[in-house]
Amino acid sequence: MTQLKTISPVLLILWATLLSHAQYAIRDPNAIPLHGEWRFALDPVDAGERGNWYRDDASLNRWEKVTVPHCFSVDPRFQFYTGTAWYRRTFPFKSTPGKRVILHFDAAYYETSVWINNRKVGTHEGGYTPFHFDVTDYLQSDPANGALNTIAISVNNNTWKTTTIPGAKDNNLPESFPGWLNYGGLIRPVYLTVEPETYVDNIKIEAVPDLAKGTSTLKIKTRIRNAGKQAITPKLAFRVEQNGKPVVLTWKQSAGSIAANQTAVLEAETVLKAADVKLWSVDQPTLYDLQVIAATDTARTHFGIRKVEVRNAQLLLNGKPIKVAGGNRVVDYTGLGSLEPDWVVEKDMRLMKEAGMELHRLTHYTPSETVYDWADRNGMLIISEAGNWQLTPRQMDNDTMRTKFRQQFREMAERDWNHPSVIAYSVGNEYLSEQPAGQRWTKDMIAFARELDPTRLYTFASMRLNSLPKKPEDEASQYCDFISTNTYGNHANILKHIHSLYPDKPIFVSEYGTRADGKDGEAGQVTHIEKFLTDIRQLPYVVGASWWSFNDYLSRHDGTNPDGTRPWGLVRGDRSKRLLYKAHQTGMAPLTVEKVSWTTGTEGVHSVTLRVTARTDFPAYTLKKYQLKVDKTLLPIPDLQPGQQANLTFPVRGFDKTLTIEVIKPTGFSILTQTIDSTNDTRASN
């Protein structure tokens, strides 16, 4: 979890850099970004450390200038480079006595080593999760006399190994490579924060509503770092706001002493009365802001109050069944690779939202936290996944691999556990879950994850349920809260078989789809989704379906086109829309709109009656505060439970025979566009 900190009086020497590179959000306003111009060099023979490339007196004559965040793989010269690359820059810094300086990486792919002022600070393995180092004792602080700090970073993107996560399989078969490009570099923000000796290192919020009473408990676990030389007994203060207004609360706190140079977790609890509880949901994504004050440090984060459950083969959000579509989003954008500037996140998430994508198993790794911030504010449900992409049985039983997975999962969970959009975690994708090693992995990793975060649901994406299991104990989905299945065809029969194995568990189709370059081209994608919807709409236990994939992406996996692309998407790599985009939007709308009557009046004034029906099959959930947009006028749609309908009659001026209408969600997104004809049936607009 990345919490915000109150701006301190420390001089932000690099503030101008923050302003010039604000396209990458850093959630802490007190951050000192190290974005902008760096020097860059490839190191294909791993000579850098031996050759002292990290030293401040090392020559930079053959180093290029690049802009960080940086993905070196998008440079055509380096697209297929796998190995070590180096980054270097200098920066001034003015320290303040009694403060600690923390160097943060939101992610670097894949294995990272850091030096400051000729001294090695540390290393990190894992390409998609955040990490940090306390660099206080490594810095020089005399900018008045021209002192500069030299930071050098080596990043190795070689994940074609059997010992990395993700990585190659150890089965010696031709398909040993991962299914996406190993984009290398300092791919996400790098920055410093300045903290007091006692500071808030992390916050975990558990907001659990009582749906019957309308109240909510609020438990706060605050991890406090005491970097000083004396033991302390901190007392915390809390402030909760909703829409800028403080919520008056009475807290119960646990007291505890924290020894010098140690970290401890302090707990506090309170209850919100019913009048102060506004539930977070897909269409009403209400957020609360929390401040935690520990001595001279103040940390901020947001949270939502919502309850997610599975019961009787249904997924319940705040006590009500919900069935919604979604998509898998590969972090890959033409010309940017795995970079995720704010405008890319905004563009992608808006396109997904307007396509009817609400419940996602986004991808096999951790995207930028900006994605989850957007989902929190705008209402999306996300299953986060770490690590295991088709690991073999030997790899899953390997203690070192298990340790690496636990580390990456912990880093993911500790960053994301306050995001209300994150409703579940997945412990892997498409491994041999019917074999003993796969069974052990699933049971053990879910148990480990529940220790970290017992508030989420747990699953994994199985490809082994399509034909193999004959009994529920034959496959590791027995350990999951709900079933996730990657199923590409024969959907009705396979999903019925899965339901017969696990009749009490809802089924989420974590992957389905077909490529745009199949024998029927883009039209084949449209036919595929129409047939898929026909199949699942007769199956009440299917609660979600995530198309693989929202976007095209580059890959080296077998089956990739000669140009390096895998064209599965609703959109292409540059986000231009395919025919499938409109088909998905129309098919995944939670309501239908049809013409009841069109009465042609005099002087260009007509009367139109439309029937709006909330779907009962898929997708299906309670609709509140939806609107019809007619011309420039917004007409409220009555609140509808699944299966309910309402007739809306309104005058239309200035139209001859056709009228274009849109369905607008409470959050402002247009999710359905149709053309109403005065003589023919309602039809979808192109």
TrEMBL record:
Q: Report keywords, A-Z.
A: Glycosidase, Hydrolase
**Keyword Transmembrane: yes or no?**
no
The Glycoside hydrolase family 2 immunoglobulin-like beta-sandwich domain sits at: 198-306
Q: Which GO terms describe its molecular function?
A: beta-galactosidase activity
Instruction: Tell me which residues make up the Glycoside hydrolase family 2 catalytic domain.
Output: 308-523
EC code: 3.2.1.23
Q: SUPFAM superfamilies under this entry?
A: (Trans)glycosidases, beta-Galactosidase/glucuronidase domain, Galactose-binding domain-like
Which part of the chain is the Glycosyl hydrolases family 2 sugar binding domain?
Answer: 34-164
Name any Gene Ontology BP term: carbohydrate metabolic process
What InterPro entries would the database entry show? Answer: Beta-gal/glucu_dom_sf, Galactose-bd-like_sf, GH, GH2_Domain-Containing, Glyco_hydro_2, Glyco_hydro_2_cat, Glyco_hydro_2_N, Ig-like_fold
Family according to the record: Belongs to the glycosyl hydrolase 2 family.
PANTHER family referenced in this protein's UniProt entry, alphabetically: BETA-GALACTOSIDASE, BETA-MANNOSIDASE
Identification of the protein by name: Beta-galactosidase
